[in-house]
Amino acid sequence: MLVKLIKYVFYDLLKSMWVLATIFFYTLVVYFLTKFGKSVGKITVSYSNLSSLSLSLFSLLLSTTYLYSKRNFLEFVLAQPVKRSVFLLSIVLSLSLSLSLSYLLGSLIPFYYFVGYSAGFLKGVLLNLFLVPLFVSLGVLSFLLIEDKVKGLGFSLFLWLFFCTIYDALLLYAMVVLSEYPLERLFLALTLLNPLDLLRLTVLMDVGLYELMGFVGKWLAEYLKDLWFLSAFLSLFYTTLILFINLRIFKRRDF
Amino acid sequence: MIRFVDVFKSFGKKKLFEGLNLEFKEGVTTAILGPNGSGKTTLVKMILSLVLPDRGKVLVDGKDVQGNVGYKKLIGYMPQIPEFPDNLTVKDIVSMVEDIRGQRAVRLDELVNILNLEKELSKRFSNLSGGTKQKVGALLALAFDAPLLILDEPTVGLDPLSAHRLKEFIRREKLKKTILYISHFMNEVEEIADTVVFLTEGKVVFQGEIEKLKAKTGKESFEEAMLCLLSS
Questions:
Q1: pTM
Q2: Is the complex ipTM more than 0.95?
Q3: CB of B165 within 8 A of CB of B115?
Q4: Which residues of chain B have a Cβ shorter than 8 Å from any chain A Cβ?
């Protein structure tokens, strides 16, 4: 049943403007970065930073708008012999798959065309893919918690801003206020808890630019060597956790 | 066939059903009527377990609907506003519902003909007019030959010919099915329903045959009887 539902929702999404727009957007970004970028390492870092911000935003917006605009469709499917958990999973997987596919196509094909094969770039792109199901699940959470479409979209944008800037700003503020205490490692650990920050650090480490991060880079290079596993694990852990919360809410929600 | 046993339901602070007990008998066509916000849609959504009761049970064919999805194969549901994936064609949507239900749409050809949908089958859902979307909703509710039909304002938005044909079809089907019918058109209700359930603020104020309602209110027409119930 899960596969059947994914097939139809995925097929619908593939034909939507979202997929084409995402492919076009990333193709354009790759084109400009490769045109003006100086080295593959720097292009990879810049592209990964841009991707992490934009892909998380697209994932949130796509999932939130899709669910609010398809409320009557959800109602219809739930009136059929389908388990709620199976239907929710199929929606999350279809949204994640369609967005991931368009990101992969929009990134890898133009990069290969303009530059050629690069293992670092490929790793950066693959790592960013972990953000898709995580932020799709956050979009679903917004839909489940908030009835009103405008407020739901607003909440989604707030979540995105929180992970992009507010979280770091709060940490920075706390670091300044508590600068007299030896809390560097605690703050570093807190930084790693933010999936977007962790992803940026992972890519920087991967292309060997960790010196740019000063103390943080030195500490990470010394203790963690490779952040790939941690980054993937934490993203998957957060995704599973949010999905679990979503399922609990979805099972009891009135439509 | 359907029983509400001591059902309680609130939305926030607003209490809608407080110990609702109601039964819909097999083979009877019942119109669910009442003013806006009286609980008509919530009532049918509870049968489909789209809305879950705070307390009490809703039984379909003797089985509690909560945590059970198998019974939905017995139901053909036509929502008030049909909505499907925009980029799927009508054919794709029928296949999708067949796959979901694990049943063939055995009366598809007959209904496509009745609703005049031949030319629309290969069109994307987003390219259909409002009335045609409504027809697709009717097609999916009726094509599986389910023994229980739940139809929420089925003729709204349909052209007169399609509305007439759909009502004719429902009239033929009512002989062998249990039908719950929500409509604001009194003449339509009188044409189709055997009995009516009248709800006001979540309470059943009348349940029975249309003739009994007329006798109870002392009115000659069904519309006047309804207005009498509404004003009281």
A1: 0.88
A2: no
A3: yes
A4: 11, 45, 48-52, 69-73, 75, 77, 79, 81-88, 92, 96-97, 99-102, 140
